[in-house]
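tool_call predict_complex ligand=3AM
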Amino acid sequence: MSSSRRLFFALPLPDALQQQVIRWRADAFSSEAGRPVAAANLHLTLAFLGEVSAQKEQALARLADRIAQPGFSLRLDDLGHWPRPGVVWLGTRRAPRGLLQLAELLRSQAARSGCYQSPMPFHPHITLLRAATQPVAIPPTTPGWVFNAETFALYQSVFENGRTRYHQLEQWPLAPQENR
Ligand code: 3AM
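tool_result ok
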């Protein structure tokens, strides 16, 4: 049996924000629009790693130990629909520099460790609905919550009993925010 696991780095959503998002989402989208992502699975992906061996996982986690990036805040004021992957997402019109730097660092460490990185530009987003392949009515505005990112985490994606679940394997603090 292979010991590799399907992994990614992401920002976890604080519990209170998870709850706000799912309450708002229930009103904002019709039930036919797509399959809602479970509250506990809401996250903002920083770097997708793919199938990773135990040895490479350890190496990437030890590199993450040395990251000393400051935390940052982002306003969740953008919404969109990508019909091809069938994703409805919540994002930001102005990605803070700290977010872009953290993603770039994790992606370049992943690439140097041999994890294929998509050439598509990084578009920070929180997936709200999946299997949204038909046209979706996107609300014109979002509640514009502010997401204070204070940690980032390594997740394993597990497909079991017909459902994908994300298990948080390890979490790292971001340094106190600058300019607050
Ligand atoms: O929920 P989001 O969209 O942020 O889309 C997958 C999900 O991100 C993404 O990794 C996250 C956890 O599964 N993902 C899956 N396969 C991918 C790939 N081949 C991928 N991202 C880039 N390349």
